[in-house]
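From the pipeline queue, job 12 of 40. The input is one protein chain; the requested action is below.

Action: predict structure.
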Amino acid sequence: MTKLYKLIIFLCLANLNFIVAQQKLHRIHSHNDYHQNVPFWNAYANKLNSIEVDIFLKGGNLYATHTENEIKENYTIETLYLQPLQKVISLGLGVHQELQLLVDIKSEPYSTLKKLIKVLEKYPDIINHRHISIVISGNRPKAEEYVNYPPYIKFDYQSLDKPTNAEVWKKVALISLSFSKFSLWNGKGRMTAPDYKKVKDAIDKAHSYNKPFRFWGAPDSKTAWKAFTDLGVDFINTDLPFESSRYLNSLEKRVYHNNTVSPVYTPTYEYDQKNIPVKNIVLLIGDGNGLSHISSATLANGGELTLTRLKSIGLIKTQSADDFSTDSAASGTAFSTGKKTNNRYIGMDSSGQISENITELLDKENFLSGCITTDDITGATPAAFYAHQQDRSYQKEIAADLLKSKLSLFAGGGKNRFNNNFEESGFTIVNSIEDIGKSTKNKIGFFLAENEIPGVLKGRGPILATATEQSLKFLKNKNKSFFLMVEGAQIDTYGHLNNTAGIISETIDFDEAVAKAIKFADESGNTLVIITADHETSGFSIPHGNIHENMVEGDFNTHDHTGSMVPLFAYGPQSHEFQGVYENSDLLSKILKVLNLNK
C-alpha cells in the first residue's frame, strides 16, 4: 500500500469524526464502488449504507472487477473491502452504521460463491456483526438454493414475482430492478405521468412484500435522487457517494412546507407611478433577500406576496468599494450616504471620513426619521442610518451614536447594549409595541428583546409588521414629513445557516411588514415605499417544490454573501423613477430627487 493511499485512508477515517448526525439518514447505494478513487472509504466516510463490489474468480483470487480483462493486481475484495471493514470494526469507527456489502458476482456463481464464503469466514467480526449484511447479486444460484447458504449470506432478488417458498423468501435482502424496464427518463425535468405510475407501482409492490427496493441503471442526479426519495426507493443508486450523501442528508434542512399562508394585501394603485409630490419615504430592506428568496416565499405562500403585486421594479448592483461581495455595513452605508464604502465601515466613506447620512440630511429639511429591525438596533444595517464608525463591531460606540442621532424612533433588539441613559438623550422607552403608536413623545424607542430577537420559527410572531404599523402611526401623528427604514434582518441569518425554512418564514414575515407600508401609502396618497435588499446571501436557488402543497426545496452554493444583483420594488407617487439597473449608492439621489431635494 502506497504512502499516498495510506494518507487518503487516514483522512477519510478522520472525516468520520466530523460528520454531523442527521435526524434521518437516507440509505444510499454506492454502485460499482471499486471504481472510486478511494474504494470503500469514500462511501463509508459519507455514511452510505450499501456498497457494491463486482467480483471475478481467477487463479483462486476474488478480484474486484467487472470483467476478467479489467483485473488489476492487488484489487481484491479482501484488500479493498474486507480488510478496511475489519479495520473499522477493530477501531470502533462508525460501529452503529448499518452497512450492506452487495457482492455482484461476475464469474461462474457456484465456484465463486464457494470461494467467497471461504474468504468471508476469515473475518468472523464481519459476518457476525449485527450492523453488517452480506448480499449476493449478479450471477446467483437458483432461488430455491438460497437456503443452502450460511445465515450471514442474503440475496438480491431481481423480480416482482414472489417465490412461494417462505424459507427462500427469508433469504432475500432486497429487490433490485433495472430502471429502464419502467422508464427512459434521464433525470432531468420530470417523468411522464404514465412512467411515474409504472415506477411507483413497482416500488409499491416491492414494499407490499416488506422488502427494501433499489433501481439499478437509474438516473444519477439531484433531481433523480429527490424523485426516488419522494417515491420511497429504499436504496438510492449512485456513482457519486459524496455528492448524493451531502444532498440527500441535507434535504430535511432544505425542504420547507409552509402550513400557514399569510394574507396578501392588494394595492389600490391610485397614486402609484403618479407625478405628484412625495412627502414620506418608507425604505424596507430584506437583509440578504435575493430573487430566489422572494420566489421561494412567493411559491410557499400560495403563489403570491404583497411584494409581487407591485409594478415598479429595478435591480441593484451591490459591490462595495473594496470587495466584490458587500457586507451589510457597506451596503447600508451606500444606501444612506450615496457613497460606496469599504466592508465593515458604518457611515464613513472609503477613505475613512464621516459621510452625512439620509437621516442627518433630512433632519435639516425638518423631516422625522425612524429605524426598525429584527436585528439588534446596533446591527450593521440600522447603524448605517444613524452612526459613524470604522467597524461594525464597535457596538459600544454605535450605541452611543444612536443616543445622539437624529432619529425620532427606533425599535429593535439588544437592550443589554445600553446603560438605560435614554432620557438624557431625549428618548423615551415605551413598554409595548402598541405604545409606539399611542406615544406623544418627541423621541421614542422600543426594544423587541433584551438580547437577540428570536426568529419566526422560534415563535417570534408578526412583531415586525406590528412595529411597522405602529411606527407609521407615530410618525403620521407628528404632521411632518418622515423617513422610515424597516429591516427584515433574519432572512440573512438563515441564509448564512443554509436553512430554507428560515429563509421562507422570514421573507413572508417581511412581506407582512411590506403590506403595512403599502396600505399606509394607499391611505396617505403621498408616501413612496421602496423595498429592496442590501445583498444576496447563500447563493440560494429553488430546484424543486410543489406549489399546491406550499412546499419548496432550497439549495445553496455558499454560507456567505454573493455578488448577485438584488431586486428593488417601489410603490406610490413617482415609483417609476426607481426602475432600471443601478448601483446601491444611486438610491439616495433617487430618493432626494422625488422629494425635490436633489440640490
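Job complete. The domain at 259-368+463-594 is CATH 3.40.720.10 (Alkaline Phosphatase, subunit A).
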